[in-house]
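Incident log, structure service

09:12 report received: a user says their structure output differs between two submissions of the same chain.
09:20 pulled the input from the user's history:
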Amino acid sequence: MLPKFDIVFYLLTFFIVMKPRTPVAMQLLIKQVRDALPFKAPEQYLCQGECKGCSLKLLDYLDAELTNWENRLSNGEVPGLGDVQRIAKTSKKIYQVLARNGLV
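09:34 re-ran on a clean worker, output below:
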């Protein structure tokens, strides 16, 4: 079985091969990222011990990016494949920092 976050990239690869509409791929990616990362965690949980990157700031940044794309999708904007890949790459890097900090 794939680790939870690797499913996001498996789905992204699957959709690239199957050539779906990019809004669908972006919506699925956003859902997977929101399910995999602790966006609702309290600040005390995120800021424990030694940090190797500010988890709170990274989650705030990613939340703003995802919210921006949710709004753009609801307004009918169609993301390019590069937009989907950029969000996937950013999400993966932030996930790795959170994993190093012991939060996921």
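09:41 both user submissions now match this output. Likely a transient worker issue. Closing.
09:42 reviewer note: Residues 4-100 form one domain. Helices lie at 4-18, 22-36, 43-46, 55-74, 81-100.
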